[in-house]
Amino acid sequence: MKLVTTPFNFHSTATEVIKGINLSGKRAIVTGGASGIGVETARALAGAGAEVTLAVRDVEAGARVAADITTSTKNKAVRVAKLDLVERASINAFVAGWKGPLHILVNNAGIMACPEQYTSEGWELQFATNHLGHFALSLGLHDALASAAQTGATARIVSLSSAAHLFSPVVFDDIHFAFRTYEPRLAYAQSKTANILFAVGAMAHWHGDGITANALNPGAIPTNLQRHVGGKLLTPTQLQKTREQGSATSVLLAASPLVEGISGRYFADCNEAATVARRQPDFTGVAPYALDPVNAERLWNESLKMIA
Known about the structure:
Elements: H1 14-18, E1 27-31, H2 36-47, E2 51-56, H3 59-73, E3 78-82, H4 88-97, E4 104-107, H5 125-140, H6 142-149, E5 155-160, H7 184-206, E6 211-217, H8 243-246, H9 248-255, E7 266-268, E8 271-272, H10 288-291, H11 293-307
Parallel strand pairs: 1-2, 1-4, 2-3, 4-5, 5-6, 6-7
Antiparallel strand pairs: 7-8
């Protein structure tokens, strides 16, 4: 299967990717849209005319960011809604409060390499936040996405992963570190592999509903995400990006006609990444276990059991 390529690259910004695209009449959700590259992703989508909802834990911070985006884009349809991805009640309330179609869902929020913590269900916190929360949210919004697809264009899910996925597959026999010694970076890596497998699984389950899903590595961007590792990047040999560059691939997958109809793929630097046989020194490419449809189906079924 030929890799998808675009005119954009490592240095491209969200502004450059979105140029000339009109999203008027489209509705988008960006989880974690009040910080890091989520802000610039939301800003680009709003700048192209979309109605954008920032789904955030801190609604006061979200309101400040929404006001800033409105000022910079002149788009008054930038909204804020409460969403805590580790609280089932919060996810259910967000889904219940969503009315009408949804054209773009950017599963952007996440945590990285945090100390060992578990949810009330006994789920490891990084897996629960980065994967299970977004899995439950996406399932809850499925009908809204399918409704948007009925208007003629595909609805899009964008799943933010990381080059860190190259450090661990999903360890199905011990996802929540009940028997393994907890290692923060391996837990993060596992959750990022799950983000890619979700896109593969969503393609298999929802392609007939007019919904596409792709995953991406935004690159190495200094943000608050690194607070548990002393502000250091997980893969320090990577070249760093600005937040505007880091949000470019998210915006490409959310809005560009260059990837219309593409689904179940993994992108980096605005182009589809090649599968690698082993981890590369520069952390490029995607691990085969992250695109394996058998793994994706197993994760889908395990996730359904967990959130049932």
